[in-house]
Specification:
It contains two helices and three strands; from the N terminus they run αβββα. The chain has one domain (2-79): Ybab, Chain: A. The mean pLDDT is 88. A hairpin with a 2-residue loop joins strand 1 and strand 2 (30-35). Helices cover 55% and strands 20% of the residues. It is an alpha+beta fold.
Length: 84
């Protein structure tokens, strides 16, 4: 019981520190900044691109940022020795 509480407290600590992490993805002048909670902090578009190109690249940037956060979180959990 106490081990589970200890693990939950450790996980909460890792989660709180990861909230401060920012992932930046930039492609063709379009930039997305996302935090460790998968919240979009900033989006910059490139007006020289067509609307369709901006939409396509923005989707790519958002997906890449999400993937990078997941990979970084998994790596941090593994390096901290956290196990379920």
């Amino acid at each position: 019981m106490f081990d589970q509480l200890k693990k939950m407290a450790e996980l909460k600590k890792i989660q709180d520190s990861f909230k401060k992490e920012l992932i930046v993805v930039e492609k063709n002048g379009i930039k997305v900044v996302m935090n460790g909670n998968f919240e979009v902090q900033e989006i910059n578009l490139n007006d020289s691109l067509s609307k369709e190109d901006q939409e396509r690249i923005l989707i790519q940037c958002l997906n890449e940022a999400k993937d990078n956060i997941q990979k970084t979180l998994a790596k941090n959990l593994m390096s901290s020795g956290f196990s379920f």
